[in-house]
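Why does residue order matter? Because the sequence determines the fold. Keep that principle in mind as you read this record.
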Amino acid sequence: MLKTCCSIFAILFSALLACNAYAQPTPSNLAGDAGSAPDLAFPAAVTPVAEADYPKMLLLKPDGDGPFPAVVLGHQCGGLVFSRANPQAANWSMLEWAKRFHSAGYVTLLIDFMGPRGAQQVCQGPQAGVTLGRTVKDFYQAADYLRKLPYVNPAKVAMVGYSQGALSALFNNSKSFREEFRQARGFDAYVSFYPPCRIMFGPNRFFNDVVQKDIEKPHLFLLGGADNEAPASDCEALLAPIKASGKPVQVHTYAAETHCWDCKSLNGFSKPGLLGTVTYTYSESATIDSFARTKAFLAESLRLP
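Structure:
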């Protein structure tokens, strides 16, 4: 299972859209596919941080009454558990991210849009109804869920996505997608770690740009210059005119970092990719720096004290 855990092959093919194998990821197509699986049941109770010892859907809360800012974390296409036969082959990095945000004073929801539905991974296509449209709706619903919690500041709720979660953030932070999904409000800020900004679809393998021009809320893009799975150059080229138009976009590229630079358990993992062999290299310095940049961006965007 490890060989597929963070691959974004599924993202590169329109099989993510179960209703139409060759449909472009337009607002109407994704919204039409949003009912492909039942809604998630978000945590009914807070998990004490001392008991957060395994990657799973959980809710962490700082001490006190709040109201606190909140963040939803979206995992990669391999989910939170890479192997049912070997529970230790899990996405420990996402659990560490949840703890980092908790320690920084955020109510933190680590979402799992695969496991509760029985999907092992969606790196080669949808499983158990887990499609791109379904996950975009999951994140809108997660924002609504957090805003109803009495200890969350409803004006300070952010989304941070990694790879496939980062791709979902591109759609969630779009006026046209938000309206098509009949959402009055999305998140108040977004961060995308190494997102694919151009995806492939259809039998002729056409590339489709998925960076949305109608970005509504502040959005930070963190990219790897040595990423040959989701090339930084795609995002840089597509985001430059959007940023120049005055949209609230920030971009930072780590020149030497690969895709999944924060994935410590996958350090050295290699697989074939569209642009040659893909190898993940864990970078502690980039992981630390990317968290610092994310905290600073969210503090500014959410106007935290």
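The longest strand covers residues 152-162.
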